[in-house]
Design goal:
Number of helices of chain B: 8
CATH class of the largest domain in chain B: Alpha Beta
Number of strands of chain A: 0
Number of helices of chain A: 11
Distance between the termini of chain B: 35 Å
Shape of chain B: globular
Largest sheet of chain A: none
CATH topology of the largest domain in chain A: MetI-like fold
Radius of gyration of chain A: 25 Å
CATH superfamily of the largest domain in chain B: P-loop containing nucleotide triphosphate hydrolases
Number of domains of chain B: 2
CATH architecture of the largest domain in chain A: Orthogonal Bundle
Helix content of chain A: over 70%
Strand content of chain B: 15-25%
Shape of chain A: elongated
CATH topology of the largest domain in chain B: Rossmann fold
Number of domains of chain A: 2
Number of strands of chain B: 13
Distance between the termini of chain A: 28 Å
Strand content of chain A: under 5%
Structural class of chain B: alpha/beta
Strand order of the largest sheet of chain B: 6-7-8-3-9-10-13
Oligomer: heterodimer
Chain lengths: ~280, ~300
């Protein structure tokens, strides 16, 4: 039964994609220009040649995908790099910012979760800082750090820290009392308790926070790179817009979606590994 | 009642902040090494609080507890606890749950030694073959067995059980009671156990402490009586109810819980300390017991 549902769903997905591509194809078909007043004039106006709506057709996107996929890592100077290199730059920034955020958020979250006092003391700050759009930090970052690449990493850091911090604190604070009592009666030391009781107990919640953070970080990196420029998938989108190559823009959008999905799947797997059944 | 008993509870009381009267007060108990003590009482009389104070997880408002010459002031590996809800770590396998406790007790032991030691106790509670299962894959009875194995594995001086079989069905409960009885007699373990089940208490305990109720109008709860179980040590679940003393003891306990748990308690004062009287209902003659007007009709079942 389940298998047949999965199969049906897959078929339906393919069908939907087919419909979408068909509509796209029809909508972007070159339109035949109306009979010209004067054939000479029409020629001057570029008549006769098929006229496009401006939006690329699915086939053009397909060609672009094949072109980019066949040579993803070429480097012809600052404004012409392969898509693989651009994505790698973005991923490197996201990873750096995310790891920095994890290095701060996990220990701090642990600390906050363990102590109701600290939790209450820090809560107003967290509540104010959390809803700030990470890009709002950009001018401040550029002014203080004075380096655009590092600034974009800082923006990733600041946006991915909150979900991790809040989830870690919440996960740690809501570890079942029973397990802590077991640790107490076994005279388990502070560090051993933290790593062998609290951490595994809170791991699913913590990983949920990391998954959310990674999602936000991947959203933000595109915008950040559009601002900062130079390299990365966000810059690629902006650069191709300036080149008026909508084909490449659409291709980049597709890439952003695919990479984001893969990142999410990776954290989904980690989450699955850490989840326990009570 | 020597002053050198293994466990001495003196004038123990617990009052929650702001409450007009304590939950219980004047608890004086002596437990000898190797004794199995059950405590019975209605809900809310503070049984679990007493057990938590003994384990060190809770602190008393007054009085103190001395075990083996040392005052109890916090949790210790000397006192193993079997929790009501088994409290196994769901992310660890059965073997790892026990190994965690063993490693806490003997941090210097090698991995093999910890594993071997743990295996002994897994075999003891008859869970051989389930070592690599997670608690979620086990039945309720098996989980509680793991909890018992974990508590025994650290070889505590005293074992504290908080209604360990409360959530189990009658058949499973019976089997585990038998196992607990045999393990305790093998290891000469000192045990303090909370139960709601009168039959369970008679089967397992050497002494049964009866706690008076903590009603909103009446006095704080105390230990009203200590019923000494005079049934032979060799009793088993299968033959215990054929023993002539069984219903005398059982009737006495039920009688207390139904009719007398709110009655004022009379203490024997020994050396200025109020001890609950020790009662031997199993040894009273038929004439004595027939004097009691409130004798429950259960006796006639025999």
């Amino acid at each position: 039964m389940l298998k047949s549902i999965a199969l049906k769903a897959a078929l339906l997905s393919v069908l939907l994609l087919g419909c979408f591509l068909l509509v796209w194809h029809i909508a972007t078909l070159p339109k035949q220009t109306v009979a010209a007043v004067d054939s000479e004039y029409a020629k001057l106006m570029g008549g006769g040649a098929p006229k496009s709506t401006g939006l690329p057709t699915p086939l053009q996107i397909g060609e672009a995908v094949i072109k980019h996929a066949s040579d993803p890592f070429y480097d012809n100077g600052p404004n012409d790099k392969g898509i693989g290199i651009q994505v790698a730059f973005s991923l490197a920034r996201v990873t750096a910012g995310f790891l920095l955020a994890a290095a701060v958020a996990l220990p701090l979250g642990f600390f906050i979760g363990m102590s109701p006092l600290i939790y209450r003391a820090l809560n107003p700050f967290i509540q104010v800082l959390k809803p700030i759009s990470p890009l709002a930090w950009m001018p401040l970052a550029l002014y203080t750090i004075k380096d655009s690449a590092t600034s974009s990493i800082f923006v990733i850091f600041i946006c991915s820290i909150w979900p991790m911090l809040i989830n870690t604190a919440h996960g740690v604070a809501s570890v079942r009392r029973e397990w802590l009592n077991v640790a107490k009666t076994l005279e388990v030391g502070v560090l051993r308790k933290a790593f062998y009781v609290v951490l595994p107990a809170a791991a699913p919640t913590i990983l949920t926070g990391m998954r959310i953070s990674m999602g936000i970080a991947w959203l933000v990196i595109v915008a950040a790179e559009m601002l900062v420029g130079g390299t990365g998938i966000g810059y690629f989108v902006w650069n191709e817009w300036n080149n008026l190559s909508l084909t490449n823009v659409i291709f980049a959008i597709l890439m952003i979606g695919v990479v984001g999905m893969l990142l999410d799947m990776l954290f989904g797997l980690l989450q699955q590994a850490a989840t326990y059944v009570e | 009642m020597s002053s050198h008993s293994f466990l001495q509870i003196r004038e123990l009381s617990k009052r929650y902040g702001g409450a007009p009267k304590p939950v219980f007060e004047g608890i004086n108990v002596d437990i000898e090494r190797g004794e199995f003590v059950c405590i019975i009482g209605h809900s809310g009389c503070g049984k679990t609080t007493i057990l938590n104070i003994l384990s060190g997880l809770d602190s008393a408002s007054g009085g103190n507890v001395v075990m083996d010459g040392r005052e109890v002031s916090g949790p210790s590996l000397d006192r193993g606890v079997v929790f009501q809800g088994h409290a196994l770590m769901p992310w660890l396998t059965v073997a790892a749950n026990i190994a965690f406790a063993v490693k806490s007790r003997w941090p210097d032991w090698s991995r093999e030694r910890i594993q071997q030691h743990g295996q002994k106790y897994i075999d003891l509670v008859r869970l051989t073959g389930n070592e690599s299962k997670k608690p979620s894959e086990l039945s309720g009875g098996m989980k509680q067995r793991v909890g018992i194995a974990r508590a025994f594995a650290i070889q505590p001086k005293m074992l504290l059980l908080d209604e360990p079989f409360g959530a189990l069905d009658a058949l499973t409960r019976g089997t585990i009671q038998d196992e607990l009885l045999s393990i305790c007699s093998q290891t000469q373990q000192t045990v303090f156990m909370i139960t709601h089940d009168v039959d369970e208490a008679i089967l397992l305990a050497d002494k049964i402490m009866l706690m008076s109720s903590n009603t909103s109008t009446g006095p704080a709860a105390r230990i009203a009586e200590v019923v000494v179980n005079t049934l032979p040590k060799t009793r088993t679940r299968a033959d215990i109810h054929h023993h002539p003393q069984f219903y005398k003891i059982r009737n006495h306990l039920v009688d207390f819980l139904v009719n007398r748990s709110s009655a004022p308690t009379v203490m024997n004062s020994i050396g200025g300390i109020g001890y609950p009287p020790e009662i031997f209902p199993g040894l009273t003659s038929e004439e004595d017991s027939s004097d009691k007007s409130q004798k429950p009709s259960l006796k006639k079942i025999k």
